[in-house]
Specification:
The structure is a homodimer. Chain A is of the alpha/beta class. The first copy, chain A, folds into three domains: 8-60, Orthogonal Bundle (434 Repressor (Amino-terminal Domain)); 65-167 and 305-329, Response regulator (Rossmann fold, 3-Layer(aba) Sandwich), CATH 3.40.50.2300; 169-302 and 332-342, Rossmann fold, CATH 3.40.50.2300. Helix content of chain A is 41%, strand content 16%. The first copy, chain A, has helices at 8-15, 19-26, 34-47, 53-60, 76-91, 109-117, 129-132, 135-144, 169-182, 202-213, 230-243, 258-270, 304-316; strands at residues 65-70, 95-100, 122-126, 150-153, 163-168, 188-191, 223-224, 252-255, 280-284, 298-301, 325-329, 331-333. In chain A, the strands form two sheets. In chain A, strands 2-1-3-4-5-11 form a six-stranded parallel β-sheet. A six-stranded mixed β-sheet of chain A has the order 7-6-8-9-10-12, with helices on both faces. In chain A, strand 8 (252-255), helix 12 and strand 9 form a beta-alpha-beta unit. In chain A, helix 5 (76-91) packs parallel to helix 13, helix 9 runs parallel beside helix 10 and helix 11 crosses helix 12. The interface between A and B is large, with 60 and 60 residues. Chain A binds a DNA duplex through residues 7-9, 17-21, 23-24, 27, 31-33, 36, 51-52, 54-61.
Chain lengths: 347, 347
Amino acid sequence: MEERKATIYDIAREAGVSAATVTRVMNGSPNVRPATREKVQRVIDAHGYAPSTVARDLGSGSSKTIGIILPSLRNPYYAALVSAADDEARQRGYSLWLYQLPREGEIDSAVVENLISRRLSGAFFMGGFYDVDRPDLREMLSRIGKYMPIVAICPPRENLGFVCMFNDLNSAIRQAVRHLHLLGHQRIAMLGGAARLLDSGQRAVAFVDELRYLRLPEVPEFERVGGGSAADGEQDAYRMMTQLRPEERPTAVLCYNDLVALGAMKQFRQMGLRLPEDMAVIGCDNQFFCDYTAPPLTSIDMQAEEHARSAIRELLSTTVNHSAAIVRSSTLVVRESCGVKLGWRKL
Amino acid sequence: MEERKATIYDIAREAGVSAATVTRVMNGSPNVRPATREKVQRVIDAHGYAPSTVARDLGSGSSKTIGIILPSLRNPYYAALVSAADDEARQRGYSLWLYQLPREGEIDSAVVENLISRRLSGAFFMGGFYDVDRPDLREMLSRIGKYMPIVAICPPRENLGFVCMFNDLNSAIRQAVRHLHLLGHQRIAMLGGAARLLDSGQRAVAFVDELRYLRLPEVPEFERVGGGSAADGEQDAYRMMTQLRPEERPTAVLCYNDLVALGAMKQFRQMGLRLPEDMAVIGCDNQFFCDYTAPPLTSIDMQAEEHARSAIRELLSTTVNHSAAIVRSSTLVVRESCGVKLGWRKL
DNA sequence: TTGTACGCGTTATCAG
DNA sequence: CTGATAACGCGTACAA
């Protein structure tokens, strides 16, 4: 921690040339006499010289860094997205600058200015409907968008002003409902997220559409508005079940995400229900732990990591995509939490 | 994405003062006439002016950014650490620059130079014994250490050259073994990590020590060398069990971490074992999902996030701590994966 | 082929 | 109290 990093001038002086020549050698410019090149290169190697990113950024007016804005790395879903984004960016010589949204309180405008004043190459926002509708977040993105391109993985909204990537949950949700129906389920509930509200959008719509198509009962209590954490799932499952008489209760639940499913499964277990015999559960996101729950959790795969990589590519592509949205399909990954091995259930 | 950020000169010109005065106003220097201050402030507000972080960094020779080096954000354990570190750093006006170690292949030396040339305030490394013993990683840290302070959360090693924080697993491991013993377990195994090898250090030593103290059998097959992922846990559990005759098998396993425990539990379940009646399991790290496994997983809490916050504070403290190591205690969080509710098992 | 000069946006110093 | 100037380290025109 004592050494001072050699500057281009140190190298130039020691090699007996000008700074410009050092730059030429560094960049492999052809206009350098071989002898000179070798001489300079030797000094460069000797010092392990590397040009200052900071000075370069100041001159060039842009840093090869992408700002990444997300709710929290504590949610393994976002952590995996960031990881994939970092891989993709790194591969192209870019790196990531992190910003987690404050859980409570408003976004610090100083942070926004800081982010902008870093001359980032772009910003990548990811969040759920809960985040994308925060006024302070919208303002932040709107301000940032004036200075750099933005891409986002979030629920689609009008007038977002940047490219927004999301999944076509419609087909996956309907597929999930059909899956449950085929296994003999009649009373199917949705748990967590904003359910009926416009906010959670497609999920609720597709869910209800499919219920109607299959002529399955629509019970108000089957659509719980709730948060997206495991604790929320645990709590909301409890509320839904205790609010209904035994014969009114669902035999299957479609959860807002895998965390909610985790919580719901715990609750059902505590209530003495057998999984999947007494209650089928479907999650969403297909997170790593779906393979390890008991029983393994059937989940909707959103191809999240591919999404993230694609977002980085989009951000770095010169041809800025002006389309407001990019949609990816999602698929149902069937495991055992709905009882496929049990076959048809008794109706 | 069209606007150009106003510079200090834009502000100065418009306010009819010099750049120096703008700086004074920004920094709240007392040596400014109130009238001037107000005039300048008005222009600053009108433009939403904020000084360029890049230019400031170049001048000051240091950016308020901390480089964070970790195996992968896909491991929720590290993700949680990074999240906590970010919270702590952000609170002090610092931000995080991310670097995930390549899973395969060597560390790109260009990345190291890049990291150094960013004039970071410090570097924060976190990793397991598998990482800390990589030659390329050691070289990287050694090089980085010449230019900035480093703190690490990793297994202790000789001559690391920087502050290394880790947990005193000794007491926790022994406590875990005693916990199992009190519940009537005689045949206790360790699963994953480097077990007997010096590398995994304290865990294995403490484990064996306690076995001897309690006069419990030491079976070679009870100490599986293995990886740290859920898939590793699944595989290693299988190998250990099939390698032994039924009466030789353990009735309890102490896992390298919670992911390994997750995999092992799945394997045991597939083998038809009941948890915890036929097999007790203990994990390590006390991750968020421990509450949601079936049964909830008893785990050793390393206070990982507090560790991370403390690491950031250490890094930012002026008084560089020259001690080679900082040890924290760890505690056993008892849930139900060892059958506390069952009481004593039949011997 | 090589060197000189300037701009990038700030802050600190020093002079007024 | 305020302004001019230098320095931070680099790349890039332009001149030689």
